[in-house]
Each structure stands twice: as structure tokens, then as C-alpha cells.
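Q: Here's a chain of 98 amino acids. Please give me its 3D structure as C-alpha cells.
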Amino acid sequence: MSEEFGPIIMHDGKGCPIPLGTVIRVTVEMWPEDYQTVVEVVRVAGAAWTWSNWLAAFPNGDLCGRVVAYAVKRPDAMAQLRAIAAEPLAITPASVRA
């Protein structure tokens, strides 16, 4: 898990649980034991989220992969709060009066 993304969530193949517009890091099984991980914005609840579509042919001949895991990008505000918590600024009475 990186600091930029939340925990890795194993997908159950029952459709897209992510709201549209969310940035995710997704791992897709393209073929048995052939995985690809990409960062993308969820634009549609695509076929890869439903495992019954796995290896089905699209009209262009490509085969449908299946989402096996994903992680949601943390909001920038949360990253900023964690950075502040990790290295809080030294606030002294003198700096407050200045």
C-alpha cells in the first residue's frame, strides 16, 4: 500500500462498487495468471468489474479482463493532514504573538 492510495481491496466480481469519478489503482487479470495494474478514473461501470464477462470477446476482438483488486486514491486533504501529523509544526507562544 502506498501513502497515496488506501488499502488494497480484493474484488468479488459482483459489479463496480466505486462511485464514478473516483481515482483508483486497479489490478486486472487479462488472461489466467497475466495481471496488469493501472491508475485510472472510474468513468463507467465497465464489463471487467463483473466476472461473468471474463474472457468474453468485445466487438473489436479484444477479450474482457476482470478486476481482481483495487485501491482508492486518498483525497489530497487527507495526505496533507497525515504529513502535518507526521511532522507537526513547532508552535510556541512567541510565534503565535508574532
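Q: Can you summarize the key feature?
A: DSSP finds two helices and four strands in the chain.
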